[in-house]
Design goal:
The protein is an alpha/beta fold. Helix content is about 20%, strand content about 20%. The longest helix is centred in the N-terminal third of the chain and has 18 residues.
Length: about 375
């Protein structure tokens, strides 16, 4: 076992070294020109070089500072305390090609990856089919739930929303295949369009509060989130993290918070629009720390319920759990804690659900 751990650690270091450029690979303050993804005026969340959370340190602590030691522990299967299984049974499904009118069908594919079908359009959120949450597929957190929908079984994708560039939210290999097959509109935060262009994938990027037209009667607003970004070792916070509000012509809007920490819940308050109800909110419910100081990068089930109370959507879906072991919770702990928090707040459990990977939910038009 010790020998296996040593070899795995060695492989992890080798993989990391292979993934980063030789020049400046150990100096996060030196960013190659190819990894400076955005140039623009300063703002309350951009200092001219890096994006940041206006609320301060709370959103830039936690997992972002865990470093190489934590990466090696994860690679060796020693990061958590609750012994995730090697796999969880998943019954894969084949979604319908289209869903017309006000009907809304949502399918959880796994982690943050979610398919929403409504108004005749197919919306794919944070596409990840990779086996590992890692820049290389040799080491790193391994998927325990296979994707609920095979990549080849996806219906034609019209719109892709990418919240940020972390590997558990952006699988470039899968996105290349989807882009080549369907030529969807891809919408993301500032700077991520530059990253995608390096792979030959066109995208539209915007700042928090900016609205991008998609089709007549359907727009996408890029919303505030409380997180961070890093694709490589030397491009930290060079691109913007975000959530999305898809403004639909009828039946209420679709909202996805993106990967987010608490951030004083300012992001949730800013997403509320009088006269524009949210039909479905997609909110993360993991990972979270049980024995260490709470991370500012993610909300736990209790935080998701707090956001639910602020957003006041008709319905909500909990995502970002039970796929890659990224925190200390058990593989199915997040849904259980979500149910307990909903009960504590006297919220009907059917209003804020989790799904098994591959399962679809016909979201009612109202509650």
């Amino acid at each position: 076992m010790r020998r296996r751990g040593f070899l795995l650690s060695l492989a992890a270091v080798a993989a990391l070294a292979a993934s980063f450029p030789l020049t400046g690979c150990l100096d996060r303050n030196r960013t190659p020109l190819s990894r400076i993804y955005y140039h623009g005026p300063r703002s309350d969340h951009f200092d001219g070089e890096h994006f940041f959370n206006p609320e301060g340190e709370e959103g830039t602590g936690g997992a972002q500072r865990d470093g190489i030691g934590t990466f090696l522990r994860i690679a060796e299967g020693r990061a958590g305390h609750h012994g995730w299984p090697a796999s969880v049974p998943v019954v894969q499904s084949v979604p319908p090609r289209r869903v017309a009118g006000q009907r809304m069908l949502v399918t959880w594919i796994g982690h943050a990856t979610t398919l929403v079908q409504t108004q005749g359009i197919n919306i794919l959120i944070d596409p990840v089919w990779a086996r590992r949450d890692s820049p290389v597929q040799l080491v790193g957190p391994e998927r325990v739930r296979k994707p609920g929908v095979k990549l080849r079984d996806l219906p034609p994708i019209d719109l892709v929303l990418i919240s940020h560039n972390h590997y558990d939210h952006l699988d470039m290999h899968a996105l290349e295949k989807i882009a080549a097959r369907d030529h969807p509109t891809i919408i993301t935060g500032l700077g991520n369009d530059t990253l995608l262009a390096q792979y030959g994938i066109p995208a539209k990027a915007g700042d928090w509060g900016q609205t991008i037209a998609f089709r007549p009667g359907i727009d996408v607003e890029i919303t505030r989130a409380h997180h961070w970004s890093e694709r490589w070792y030397d491009d930290r916070d060079r691109s913007l993290w975000c959530g999305f509000r898809v403004r639909l012509p009828s039946g209420g809007d679709l909202y996805y918070s993106g990967d987010t920490g608490d951030g004083q819940m300012i992001w949730a308050h800013q997403a509320v629009e009088p006269g524009r109800p949210i039909r479905l909110a997609i909110l993360p419910i993991a990972p979270y720390k049980l024995t260490q100081a709470k991370t500012g990068n993610h909300i736990d089930p209790g935080g998701a319920v707090t956001a639910f109370g602020i957003l006041h959507p008709a319905w909500a879906l909990g995502v970002h759990w039970g796929t890659f072991e990224l925190g200390e919770e058990g593989v199915n702990d997040a849904p259980k804690r979500l149910a307990a928090s909903l009960a504590d707040h006297a919220i009907a459990p059917e209003r804020f659900r989790t799904l098994e990977a591959g399962r679809a939910w016909d979201v009612p038009a109202d509650r």
